[in-house]
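Teaching soon. Invent one.


***
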Amino acid sequence: MSGLASVLELPGLSPPVLALLMGAALVAGWVDAVVGGGGLVQVPALLLVPGLPATHALGTNKVSSVMGTTAAAATYRRRVGFPSHVLGTSLLALAAAGCGALAATRLPTEVFRPVIITALLAVLAVTVLRPDSFTRSAGGSGAPGAAGPPAARARAGSGRTVRCLALGAAIGFYDGMLGPGTGSFLLIGLILLVGMETLTAAAMSKAVNLATNVGALAVFALVGAVEWRLGLVMGTANMCGGWLGARTASRLGPRFVRAALVVVVLALLVRLLSQQLR
Protein backbone atom coordinates (compact mmCIF):
# COMPACT_ATOMS: atom_id res chain seq x y z
CA MET A 1 0.00 0.00 0.00
CA SER A 2 2.85 2.41 0.74
CA GLY A 3 4.13 1.86 -2.81
CA LEU A 4 0.74 2.78 -4.31
CA ALA A 5 0.51 5.83 -2.06
CA SER A 6 3.94 6.92 -3.23
CA VAL A 7 2.90 6.58 -6.87
CA LEU A 8 -0.28 8.59 -6.27
CA GLU A 9 1.90 11.48 -5.16
CA LEU A 10 2.98 11.92 -8.79
CA PRO A 11 1.44 15.01 -10.45
CA GLY A 12 -1.73 14.26 -12.41
CA LEU A 13 -2.03 10.65 -11.25
CA SER A 14 -5.39 9.97 -9.57
CA PRO A 15 -6.70 6.61 -8.25
CA PRO A 16 -8.95 6.05 -11.34
CA VAL A 17 -6.02 6.71 -13.70
CA LEU A 18 -3.77 4.40 -11.69
CA ALA A 19 -6.45 1.67 -11.81
CA LEU A 20 -6.64 2.09 -15.59
CA LEU A 21 -2.85 1.82 -15.87
CA MET A 22 -2.75 -1.33 -13.74
CA GLY A 23 -5.47 -2.95 -15.84
CA ALA A 24 -3.71 -1.98 -19.07
CA ALA A 25 -0.43 -3.42 -17.75
CA LEU A 26 -2.12 -6.72 -16.86
CA VAL A 27 -3.69 -7.07 -20.32
CA ALA A 28 -0.46 -5.95 -22.00
CA GLY A 29 1.53 -8.61 -20.17
CA TRP A 30 -0.90 -11.33 -21.28
CA VAL A 31 -0.93 -10.19 -24.92
CA ASP A 32 2.85 -9.77 -25.00
CA ALA A 33 3.46 -13.27 -23.62
CA VAL A 34 1.27 -14.90 -26.26
CA VAL A 35 2.21 -13.07 -29.47
CA GLY A 36 3.83 -9.75 -28.59
CA GLY A 37 2.31 -6.30 -29.09
CA GLY A 38 1.64 -5.47 -25.45
CA GLY A 39 2.91 -1.95 -26.04
CA LEU A 40 -0.22 -1.35 -28.13
CA VAL A 41 -2.18 -1.50 -24.86
CA GLN A 42 0.29 -0.06 -22.37
CA VAL A 43 1.83 2.95 -24.13
CA PRO A 44 -1.49 4.65 -25.03
CA ALA A 45 -2.61 4.20 -21.41
CA LEU A 46 0.57 5.88 -20.15
CA LEU A 47 0.03 8.77 -22.54
CA LEU A 48 -3.25 9.48 -20.71
CA VAL A 49 -1.35 10.54 -17.57
CA PRO A 50 -1.53 14.35 -17.43
CA GLY A 51 1.87 16.00 -17.62
CA LEU A 52 3.82 12.82 -18.43
CA PRO A 53 6.10 13.54 -21.43
CA ALA A 54 5.96 11.08 -24.33
CA THR A 55 9.60 10.07 -23.85
CA HIS A 56 8.91 9.30 -20.18
CA ALA A 57 5.88 7.24 -21.21
CA LEU A 58 8.14 5.16 -23.49
CA GLY A 59 10.80 4.76 -20.82
CA THR A 60 8.30 3.87 -18.09
CA ASN A 61 6.68 1.37 -20.45
CA LYS A 62 10.04 -0.39 -20.72
CA VAL A 63 10.28 -0.81 -16.92
CA SER A 64 6.93 -2.59 -16.87
CA SER A 65 7.72 -4.56 -20.03
CA VAL A 66 11.02 -5.83 -18.62
CA MET A 67 9.20 -7.21 -15.60
CA GLY A 68 6.45 -8.79 -17.70
CA THR A 69 8.77 -10.39 -20.25
CA THR A 70 10.91 -11.74 -17.39
CA ALA A 71 7.89 -13.58 -15.97
CA ALA A 72 6.83 -14.82 -19.41
CA ALA A 73 10.33 -15.98 -20.38
CA ALA A 74 10.78 -17.83 -17.09
CA THR A 75 7.43 -19.59 -17.52
CA TYR A 76 8.22 -20.56 -21.13
CA ARG A 77 11.62 -21.86 -20.05
CA ARG A 78 10.02 -24.22 -17.54
CA ARG A 79 7.13 -25.36 -19.75
CA VAL A 80 8.67 -25.33 -23.26
CA GLY A 81 12.42 -24.71 -23.03
CA PHE A 82 14.81 -22.52 -25.03
CA PRO A 83 16.90 -23.48 -28.07
CA SER A 84 20.69 -23.56 -27.65
CA HIS A 85 21.40 -20.28 -29.47
CA VAL A 86 19.07 -18.14 -27.34
CA LEU A 87 21.90 -16.52 -25.33
CA GLY A 88 23.95 -15.23 -28.26
CA THR A 89 20.86 -13.96 -30.07
CA SER A 90 19.59 -12.20 -26.95
CA LEU A 91 22.91 -10.48 -26.22
CA LEU A 92 23.16 -9.20 -29.79
CA ALA A 93 19.54 -8.02 -29.65
CA LEU A 94 20.24 -6.18 -26.38
CA ALA A 95 23.14 -4.25 -27.91
CA ALA A 96 21.14 -3.50 -31.06
CA ALA A 97 18.20 -2.22 -29.00
CA GLY A 98 20.49 0.19 -27.20
CA CYS A 99 21.72 1.51 -30.54
CA GLY A 100 18.14 1.82 -31.76
CA ALA A 101 17.11 3.79 -28.67
CA LEU A 102 20.03 6.17 -29.22
CA ALA A 103 18.94 6.63 -32.84
CA ALA A 104 15.38 7.28 -31.66
CA THR A 105 16.59 10.40 -29.84
CA ARG A 106 17.85 11.85 -33.13
CA LEU A 107 15.39 10.75 -35.85
CA PRO A 108 11.65 11.47 -36.30
CA THR A 109 9.84 8.16 -35.85
CA GLU A 110 7.00 9.26 -38.19
CA VAL A 111 9.31 8.60 -41.12
CA PHE A 112 9.23 4.89 -40.36
CA ARG A 113 5.47 4.42 -39.91
CA PRO A 114 4.80 3.38 -43.57
CA VAL A 115 7.57 0.77 -43.25
CA ILE A 116 5.98 -0.65 -40.09
CA ILE A 117 2.55 -0.81 -41.75
CA THR A 118 3.99 -2.65 -44.76
CA ALA A 119 5.79 -5.15 -42.53
CA LEU A 120 2.65 -5.79 -40.47
CA LEU A 121 0.61 -6.36 -43.62
CA ALA A 122 3.18 -8.95 -44.69
CA VAL A 123 2.98 -10.67 -41.28
CA LEU A 124 -0.82 -10.71 -41.49
CA ALA A 125 -0.78 -12.15 -45.01
CA VAL A 126 1.64 -14.92 -44.05
CA THR A 127 -0.32 -15.74 -40.89
CA VAL A 128 -3.62 -16.01 -42.74
CA LEU A 129 -2.41 -17.62 -45.99
CA ARG A 130 0.12 -20.05 -44.51
CA PRO A 131 -1.50 -21.64 -41.47
CA ASP A 132 0.72 -24.71 -41.94
CA SER A 133 3.67 -22.61 -40.70
CA PHE A 134 2.14 -22.68 -37.22
CA THR A 135 1.81 -26.46 -37.10
CA ARG A 136 5.41 -27.21 -38.07
CA SER A 137 7.03 -29.85 -35.91
CA ALA A 138 10.31 -29.31 -34.13
CA GLY A 139 12.00 -31.63 -36.57
CA GLY A 140 10.93 -29.63 -39.61
CA SER A 141 13.05 -27.81 -42.14
CA GLY A 142 16.13 -26.33 -40.58
CA ALA A 143 15.63 -28.03 -37.23
CA PRO A 144 18.67 -29.46 -35.51
CA GLY A 145 17.25 -32.94 -35.60
CA ALA A 146 16.51 -32.99 -39.33
CA ALA A 147 17.42 -36.11 -41.28
CA GLY A 148 20.59 -36.22 -43.37
CA PRO A 149 24.36 -36.74 -43.12
CA PRO A 150 26.14 -35.24 -40.09
CA ALA A 151 27.87 -32.61 -42.26
CA ALA A 152 24.55 -31.50 -43.72
CA ARG A 153 23.01 -31.28 -40.27
CA ALA A 154 25.98 -29.21 -39.06
CA ARG A 155 25.58 -26.80 -41.98
CA ALA A 156 21.84 -26.53 -41.31
CA GLY A 157 22.47 -25.83 -37.63
CA SER A 158 25.08 -23.20 -38.47
CA GLY A 159 22.74 -21.50 -40.94
CA ARG A 160 19.96 -21.49 -38.37
CA THR A 161 22.20 -19.76 -35.83
CA VAL A 162 23.22 -17.10 -38.35
CA ARG A 163 19.56 -16.43 -39.19
CA CYS A 164 18.73 -16.15 -35.48
CA LEU A 165 21.55 -13.67 -34.90
CA ALA A 166 20.58 -11.56 -37.91
CA LEU A 167 16.93 -11.52 -36.83
CA GLY A 168 17.88 -10.61 -33.25
CA ALA A 169 20.03 -7.71 -34.41
CA ALA A 170 17.41 -6.32 -36.81
CA ILE A 171 14.46 -6.66 -34.42
CA GLY A 172 16.53 -5.38 -31.50
CA PHE A 173 17.40 -2.18 -33.36
CA TYR A 174 13.77 -1.78 -34.41
CA ASP A 175 12.48 -2.25 -30.85
CA GLY A 176 14.89 0.33 -29.48
CA MET A 177 13.96 2.88 -32.14
CA LEU A 178 10.22 2.30 -32.58
CA GLY A 179 8.76 -0.82 -30.95
CA PRO A 180 5.18 -1.54 -32.15
CA GLY A 181 4.78 -5.22 -33.00
CA THR A 182 8.27 -6.31 -31.91
CA GLY A 183 7.06 -9.56 -30.38
CA SER A 184 4.91 -10.34 -33.41
CA PHE A 185 7.82 -9.73 -35.80
CA LEU A 186 10.06 -11.94 -33.68
CA LEU A 187 7.51 -14.75 -33.57
CA ILE A 188 6.81 -14.83 -37.29
CA GLY A 189 10.53 -14.43 -38.13
CA LEU A 190 11.56 -17.34 -35.91
CA ILE A 191 8.85 -19.54 -37.45
CA LEU A 192 9.35 -18.67 -41.13
CA LEU A 193 12.99 -17.57 -41.39
CA VAL A 194 14.58 -19.80 -38.77
CA GLY A 195 12.23 -22.78 -39.00
CA MET A 196 11.21 -23.15 -35.35
CA GLU A 197 7.98 -24.77 -34.28
CA THR A 198 5.44 -22.35 -32.85
CA LEU A 199 5.81 -22.80 -29.09
CA THR A 200 9.61 -22.90 -29.23
CA ALA A 201 9.50 -19.70 -31.30
CA ALA A 202 7.15 -18.09 -28.76
CA ALA A 203 9.51 -19.05 -25.94
CA MET A 204 12.60 -17.71 -27.70
CA SER A 205 10.81 -14.53 -28.76
CA LYS A 206 10.19 -13.74 -25.08
CA ALA A 207 13.85 -14.24 -24.18
CA VAL A 208 14.99 -12.00 -27.05
CA ASN A 209 12.26 -9.44 -26.33
CA LEU A 210 13.41 -9.31 -22.70
CA ALA A 211 16.90 -8.47 -23.94
CA THR A 212 15.65 -5.73 -26.29
CA ASN A 213 13.57 -4.22 -23.48
CA VAL A 214 16.60 -4.16 -21.17
CA GLY A 215 18.79 -2.56 -23.85
CA ALA A 216 16.26 0.17 -24.57
CA LEU A 217 15.52 0.76 -20.87
CA ALA A 218 19.21 1.29 -20.15
CA VAL A 219 19.33 4.14 -22.66
CA PHE A 220 16.07 5.72 -21.46
CA ALA A 221 17.36 5.53 -17.87
CA LEU A 222 20.65 7.22 -18.82
CA VAL A 223 18.79 10.18 -20.31
CA GLY A 224 16.45 10.38 -17.30
CA ALA A 225 13.28 9.47 -19.20
CA VAL A 226 11.90 6.91 -16.71
CA GLU A 227 9.31 7.31 -13.95
CA TRP A 228 10.54 4.40 -11.83
CA ARG A 229 7.82 4.31 -9.16
CA LEU A 230 5.01 4.12 -11.71
CA GLY A 231 6.91 1.64 -13.87
CA LEU A 232 7.53 -0.75 -10.98
CA VAL A 233 3.90 -0.68 -9.84
CA MET A 234 2.66 -1.32 -13.39
CA GLY A 235 5.34 -3.96 -13.80
CA THR A 236 3.80 -6.01 -11.00
CA ALA A 237 0.55 -6.24 -12.96
CA ASN A 238 2.47 -6.84 -16.19
CA MET A 239 4.31 -9.77 -14.59
CA CYS A 240 0.99 -11.38 -13.60
CA GLY A 241 -0.25 -10.96 -17.17
CA GLY A 242 2.99 -12.36 -18.61
CA TRP A 243 2.81 -15.43 -16.38
CA LEU A 244 -0.83 -16.07 -17.33
CA GLY A 245 -0.19 -15.49 -21.03
CA ALA A 246 2.73 -17.91 -21.19
CA ARG A 247 0.71 -20.61 -19.46
CA THR A 248 -2.24 -20.00 -21.77
CA ALA A 249 -0.16 -20.25 -24.94
CA SER A 250 1.71 -23.38 -23.85
CA ARG A 251 -1.56 -25.07 -22.83
CA LEU A 252 -3.72 -24.13 -25.84
CA GLY A 253 -1.00 -24.59 -28.45
CA PRO A 254 -0.14 -23.28 -31.95
CA ARG A 255 -3.70 -22.74 -33.23
CA PHE A 256 -4.43 -20.37 -30.37
CA VAL A 257 -1.13 -18.51 -30.90
CA ARG A 258 -1.93 -18.07 -34.62
CA ALA A 259 -5.44 -16.72 -33.89
CA ALA A 260 -4.10 -14.32 -31.25
CA LEU A 261 -1.40 -13.12 -33.66
CA VAL A 262 -4.03 -12.23 -36.28
CA VAL A 263 -6.02 -10.20 -33.73
CA VAL A 264 -2.98 -8.33 -32.40
CA VAL A 265 -1.57 -7.52 -35.86
CA LEU A 266 -4.98 -6.25 -37.02
CA ALA A 267 -5.19 -4.03 -33.93
CA LEU A 268 -1.70 -2.65 -34.58
CA LEU A 269 -2.57 -1.97 -38.22
CA VAL A 270 -5.77 -0.13 -37.31
CA ARG A 271 -3.93 2.08 -34.83
CA LEU A 272 -1.00 2.85 -37.13
CA LEU A 273 -3.21 3.50 -40.17
CA SER A 274 -5.39 5.88 -38.14
CA GLN A 275 -2.25 7.79 -37.12
CA GLN A 276 -0.94 7.81 -40.70
CA LEU A 277 -4.20 9.21 -42.12
CA ARG A 278 -4.58 12.06 -39.60
